[in-house]
Amino acid sequence: MYASFKGLLIIAALIVTITIFAGCAVKGLDLIDSGKVSVERVKDKYISFSYVHVYQQGENICVTGRVRRRKHLPKLIKGHVDLLIISPTGSVLKKVGVYPYPRTIPGKRTRGSYFEIHIPAILSKGSKVRFKYHNTLEIPQEELLLYERIPSSEPKIKPDKGIYLSPFNVVDYIRTSIYKGQLLKVAQKSS
Fold first, then answer.
1. What is the pLDDT tens value at each position of the chain, 191 positions in all?
2. Long-range CB contacts for residues 44-51, cutoff 8 Å, separation at least 24
3. Which helix (DSSP H) or strand (DSSP E) does residue 41 occupy?
4. Rounded CA gap, 39 and 89, in Å?
């Protein structure tokens, strides 16, 4: 009995170890920890960035992070994160917008919203990634990447395609409609 339990314990430990190493290997080389890239967070009155990482994955970079409220506010905070990739000479290589998930940034005592985006670029040493939060839902069409990674419960917004609803984001769709002043149109269509 004890030998079979010990065998199961060893197998479980091996599975956990393999999972941890596989999860770390998937992200790629962390450019911030290696000193190749620096990060600049533009200060905002209500929002702070944390757990920001920039990974090199072959021909692409993966930028991840978390957005949290600094102060508890009675109003909804919805918006997007602008990422500027700046070369060592100071010129802007790319400017991209990404929606955090969930879109409505939860209150102060929660984990916040997360973002992750994959950008086709290879950064040279001394490059900088600048993060800035905008409290608007609109990202200009030319800045919205079609291949941004959005969790499946989030509405997938693509230029000229609209919002694809899933059962988990109907409330978010209604809030977005209210924000855009289109709730009246939605109500008229249903009646």
1. 556 667 776 776 666 556 544 444 456 778 888 888 999 988 887 788 888 899 988 888 888 988 887 766 656 677 788 888 888 888 888 888 887 877 666 665 667 788 888 888 888 889 999 988 877 655 555 444 433 333 433 434 333 334 443 443 444 444 444 444 444 444 444 44
2. 44/70, 44/132, 44/133, 45/70, 46/70, 46/71, 46/73, 46/77, 47/77, 47/105, 47/133, 49/131, 49/133, 50/112
3. strand 37-41
4. 15
